[in-house]
Amino acid sequence: PVVYSSAFTFHYLSALMLPTITGAVYLQDCPRQHYIPVYELVCGVFNVFLALLTCLPCARETEEGGQTTLSRTFNVWNSLVSTFLFCWMICGSVWVYSIYPPNYNQTVAGDAYCNKTLYQFAFWTTTMGYILLGLALLFGCCVCICACIYGIAKD
Protein backbone atom coordinates (compact mmCIF):
# COMPACT_ATOMS: atom_id res chain seq x y z
CA PRO A 1 0.00 0.00 0.00
CA VAL A 2 2.85 2.43 0.70
CA VAL A 3 4.24 1.93 -2.82
CA TYR A 4 0.87 2.73 -4.40
CA SER A 5 0.43 5.74 -2.13
CA SER A 6 3.83 7.19 -2.99
CA ALA A 7 3.35 6.49 -6.70
CA PHE A 8 -0.01 8.27 -6.58
CA THR A 9 1.50 11.20 -4.67
CA PHE A 10 4.36 11.46 -7.19
CA HIS A 11 1.96 11.46 -10.17
CA TYR A 12 -0.39 13.89 -8.43
CA LEU A 13 2.41 16.35 -7.67
CA SER A 14 3.80 15.92 -11.18
CA ALA A 15 0.41 16.82 -12.65
CA LEU A 16 0.26 19.86 -10.37
CA MET A 17 3.70 20.95 -11.61
CA LEU A 18 2.64 21.00 -15.29
CA PRO A 19 1.23 24.57 -15.18
CA THR A 20 4.43 25.76 -13.49
CA ILE A 21 6.61 24.11 -16.11
CA THR A 22 4.42 25.33 -18.98
CA GLY A 23 4.38 28.89 -17.64
CA ALA A 24 8.14 28.90 -17.10
CA VAL A 25 9.01 27.42 -20.49
CA TYR A 26 6.75 29.81 -22.44
CA LEU A 27 7.18 32.86 -20.19
CA GLN A 28 8.04 35.19 -23.10
CA ASP A 29 5.92 33.47 -25.77
CA CYS A 30 2.61 35.29 -25.49
CA PRO A 31 2.98 39.00 -26.25
CA ARG A 32 -0.75 39.18 -27.00
CA GLN A 33 -1.50 38.61 -23.29
CA HIS A 34 1.71 38.44 -21.29
CA TYR A 35 -0.11 37.49 -18.07
CA ILE A 36 -1.11 34.02 -19.34
CA PRO A 37 2.28 32.37 -18.61
CA VAL A 38 2.39 34.15 -15.25
CA TYR A 39 -1.13 32.86 -14.52
CA GLU A 40 -0.02 29.30 -15.27
CA LEU A 41 3.19 29.67 -13.27
CA VAL A 42 1.43 31.00 -10.17
CA CYS A 43 -1.37 28.41 -10.42
CA GLY A 44 1.15 25.58 -10.46
CA VAL A 45 3.21 26.89 -7.57
CA PHE A 46 0.22 27.57 -5.33
CA ASN A 47 -1.49 24.26 -6.19
CA VAL A 48 1.65 22.34 -5.22
CA PHE A 49 1.91 24.46 -2.06
CA LEU A 50 -1.72 23.69 -1.21
CA ALA A 51 -1.25 19.96 -1.86
CA LEU A 52 1.85 19.82 0.32
CA LEU A 53 0.14 21.87 3.01
CA THR A 54 -2.76 19.44 3.28
CA CYS A 55 -0.47 16.38 3.30
CA LEU A 56 1.59 17.45 6.29
CA PRO A 57 0.95 15.31 9.38
CA CYS A 58 0.82 18.35 11.67
CA ALA A 59 -2.18 19.66 9.69
CA ARG A 60 -4.32 16.74 10.82
CA GLU A 61 -6.59 16.62 13.85
CA THR A 62 -5.55 14.77 16.99
CA GLU A 63 -6.75 11.24 17.72
CA GLU A 64 -9.26 12.62 20.22
CA GLY A 65 -10.86 14.63 17.43
CA GLY A 66 -9.66 18.04 18.61
CA GLN A 67 -7.51 20.54 16.83
CA THR A 68 -4.13 21.76 17.89
CA THR A 69 -3.00 25.35 17.40
CA LEU A 70 -0.79 24.19 14.57
CA SER A 71 -3.63 22.37 12.78
CA ARG A 72 -5.84 25.48 13.13
CA THR A 73 -3.05 27.58 11.61
CA PHE A 74 -2.77 25.15 8.71
CA ASN A 75 -6.54 25.29 8.19
CA VAL A 76 -6.40 29.09 8.03
CA TRP A 77 -3.53 28.97 5.51
CA ASN A 78 -5.39 26.33 3.51
CA SER A 79 -8.45 28.58 3.37
CA LEU A 80 -6.42 31.65 2.41
CA VAL A 81 -4.56 29.83 -0.37
CA SER A 82 -7.81 28.32 -1.68
CA THR A 83 -9.45 31.75 -1.72
CA PHE A 84 -6.44 33.22 -3.50
CA LEU A 85 -6.51 30.43 -6.10
CA PHE A 86 -10.22 31.00 -6.75
CA CYS A 87 -9.64 34.74 -7.27
CA TRP A 88 -6.56 34.00 -9.39
CA MET A 89 -8.64 31.65 -11.54
CA ILE A 90 -11.10 34.47 -12.21
CA CYS A 91 -8.22 36.77 -13.22
CA GLY A 92 -6.75 34.06 -15.41
CA SER A 93 -10.13 33.52 -17.05
CA VAL A 94 -10.23 37.17 -18.06
CA TRP A 95 -6.72 36.95 -19.50
CA VAL A 96 -7.25 33.64 -21.30
CA TYR A 97 -10.78 34.07 -22.63
CA SER A 98 -10.36 37.73 -23.61
CA ILE A 99 -8.02 36.91 -26.50
CA TYR A 100 -9.91 33.88 -27.82
CA PRO A 101 -9.07 32.86 -30.50
CA PRO A 102 -5.49 34.10 -30.47
CA ASN A 103 -3.09 34.43 -33.36
CA TYR A 104 -0.69 31.47 -33.10
CA ASN A 105 1.52 32.63 -35.98
CA GLN A 106 4.45 34.71 -34.74
CA THR A 107 5.62 35.59 -38.25
CA VAL A 108 2.62 37.82 -39.05
CA ALA A 109 3.79 41.42 -38.72
CA GLY A 110 1.80 43.83 -36.60
CA ASP A 111 -0.37 41.19 -34.90
CA ALA A 112 0.67 39.97 -31.48
CA TYR A 113 0.69 36.20 -31.10
CA CYS A 114 0.43 33.61 -28.35
CA ASN A 115 2.21 30.27 -28.36
CA LYS A 116 -0.30 27.55 -29.26
CA THR A 117 0.84 25.05 -26.61
CA LEU A 118 0.76 27.67 -23.87
CA TYR A 119 -2.60 29.09 -24.84
CA GLN A 120 -4.36 25.78 -25.31
CA PHE A 121 -2.96 24.44 -22.05
CA ALA A 122 -4.14 27.56 -20.21
CA PHE A 123 -7.52 27.48 -21.95
CA TRP A 124 -8.22 23.84 -21.15
CA THR A 125 -6.90 23.88 -17.58
CA THR A 126 -9.07 26.92 -16.84
CA THR A 127 -12.08 25.35 -18.53
CA MET A 128 -11.55 22.06 -16.65
CA GLY A 129 -11.29 24.03 -13.42
CA TYR A 130 -14.72 25.50 -14.03
CA ILE A 131 -16.15 22.12 -15.01
CA LEU A 132 -14.80 20.52 -11.82
CA LEU A 133 -16.07 23.44 -9.74
CA GLY A 134 -19.52 23.06 -11.32
CA LEU A 135 -19.54 19.31 -10.66
CA ALA A 136 -18.50 19.86 -7.05
CA LEU A 137 -21.31 22.39 -6.57
CA LEU A 138 -23.80 20.03 -8.22
CA PHE A 139 -22.66 17.17 -5.99
CA GLY A 140 -22.94 19.40 -2.90
CA CYS A 141 -26.48 20.42 -3.88
CA CYS A 142 -27.44 16.78 -4.41
CA VAL A 143 -26.08 15.86 -0.98
CA CYS A 144 -28.03 18.71 0.62
CA ILE A 145 -31.25 17.71 -1.18
CA CYS A 146 -30.79 14.06 -0.16
CA ALA A 147 -30.11 15.12 3.43
CA CYS A 148 -33.29 17.23 3.45
CA ILE A 149 -35.38 14.45 1.93
CA TYR A 150 -33.93 11.90 4.35
CA GLY A 151 -34.52 14.29 7.26
CA ILE A 152 -38.14 14.86 6.23
CA ALA A 153 -38.76 11.13 5.69
CA LYS A 154 -37.21 10.34 9.08
CA ASP A 155 -39.68 12.66 10.88
From TrEMBL:
Q: Which InterPro entries match?
A: TMEM272
What keyword terms does UniProt attach to this protein?
Answer: Membrane, Transmembrane, Transmembrane helix
Q: Which residues cross the membrane?
A: 7-26, 38-59, 80-100, 128-153
Protein name, entry field: Si:dkey-19b23.12
Source organism (scientific name): Sinocyclocheilus rhinocerous
